[in-house]
Automatic annotation (TrEMBL):
Keywords annotated in UniProt: Hydrolase
Pfam families xrefs: ECH_2 (PF16113)
Name of the protein in its database record: 3-hydroxyisobutyryl-CoA hydrolase
SUPFAM superfamilies: ClpP/crotonase
InterPro entries assigned: ClpP/crotonase-like_dom_sf (IPR029045), ECH_dom (IPR045004), HIBYL-CoA-H (IPR032259)
Top-level taxon of the source organism: Bacteria
GO biological process, one term: L-valine catabolic process
Length: 362
């Protein structure tokens, strides 16, 4: 285990807490291993009926993976960089397929890897402090941790919009997009946790019923603000339906209004290469199983730190912090179709893939 993940079993619930608040609970490989070990142990433990996962510190559930480590490991050729993603994606799949109710308390910042350990939850609770995003294109990456899969299953073209821009959304938008299930203000969420900790639960269904009863009792005073995404949905569906990334940017650039202008500016600041790769990823993911999509993401991630814009993007945003990334391609029109498709060529034979066993029974 690690000091950055704490576990406790109480009243039939396994409490899993990310405890690295100084880094907004960003995931390290040791943390991924500790979470995996706890979930595997609890899956077979009769005294654990359900799991509740939360972040310590009051600011974040989990802000993602440790991107400074990614940068350092990529420069040093550290083989643990590949292993990080192998084990992270295996954990994401474990959560999606977990036999017992897994309940994510998505309070504060929930981004990247934080989405990976929450989107597979049976119940995803958001609060008035939730700041949710898949911001990977901002650092020359793509929305991984199953991001292609769950973004592709949002209404209309919202998945393309969120994945390409990395826009931060809040509780009402998360509910509208199907990326959350219920809302409680932060103070009510604390009351819910207190109420769970005073009970003894004999089954996972009893835990879920208790939470449902609590949220129902407070429904009238627990209504989030109106969804911005809902109001923009028709425009998003129209503008992000283009067949290619240049088509989408042209449509957004030509659209009237401040939102379209801001969105176009956001797209222009991203890596042209990774915008094209991300669009291809989300479009492919619509017809893929979760396990196949995660295998595809591992193929993509193997490529992105060797021949993509990931190292440069992290340098500009998180290491040197000059916010002036030197992307491989200056414009979308410079990105060849062959370059994009190369991200989807697996470096492994199917039977030797590190995630070959996902979705297969023992």
């Amino acid at each position: 285990m690690t000091e950055f993940v704490t576990t406790e079993v109480r009243g039939g619930i396994g409490y899993l807490t990310l405890n690295r608040p100084q880094a907004l609970n960003a995931l390290s490989l040791d943390m991924i291993r500790a979470i995996t070990q706890a979930l595997q142990t609890w899956a077979a433990a009769p005294e654990v009926a359900a799991v509740v996962v939360a972040g310590a510190g009051g600011k974040a559930f989990c802000a993602g993976g440790d991107i400074r480590y990614f940068h350092k490991a990529a420069h040093e050729g550290d083989p643990l960089l590949d292993q990080f993603f192998v084990e992270e994606y295996a954990l994401n799949f474990l959560i999606h397929r977990y036999a017992k109710p897994y309940i994510a308390l998505m309070d504060g910042v929930v981004m990247g890897g934080g989405m990976g350990i929450s989107q597979g939850a049976r119940l995803r609770l958001v609060t008035d402090r939730t700041k949710m995003a898949m911001p990977e294109t901002n650092i020359g990456l793509f929305p991984d941790v199953g991001g292609g899969w769950f973004l592709a299953r949002t209404p209309g073209r919202i998945g393309e919009y969120l994945g390409l821009t990395g826009t931060v959304i809040h509780a009402a938008d998360a509910l509208y997009a199907g990326l959350a299930d219920a809302y409680l203000p932060r103070n009510r969420l604390a009351e819910l946790v207190d109420s769970l900790r005073t009970q003894q639960f004999a089954s996972g269904d009893a835990v879920l019923a208790h939470i449902e009863g609590f949220t129902a009792a407070h429904r009238d005073d627990c209504v989030p603000a109106q969804s911005t995404l809902a109001g923009l949905s028709a425009q998003i569906d129209s503008l992000f339906a283009g067949n290619t990334m240049p088509d989408i940017l042209a449509a957004v650039s030509d659209a009237p209004g401040d939102w379209a202008a801001q969105t176009a500016a956001m797209l222009r600041s991203r890596s042209p290469l990774m915008l094209c790769v991300t669009l291809e990823q989300i479009r492919r993911a619509r017809s893929m199983s979760l396990e196949d999509e995660l295998r595809m993401e591992l193929d993509m991630m193997h490529y992105v730190f060797r021949n993509g814009d990931g190292v440069e993007g992290i340098r500009a945003l998180a290491v040197d912090k000059d916010h002036k990334p030197r992307w491989q391609h200056a414009r979308l029109d410079d990105v060849s179709r062959e370059k994009v498709l190369s991200f989807f060529d697996s470096p492994w034979r199917a039977e030797e893939h590190p995630l070959a066993s996902l979705g297969k029974t023992a």
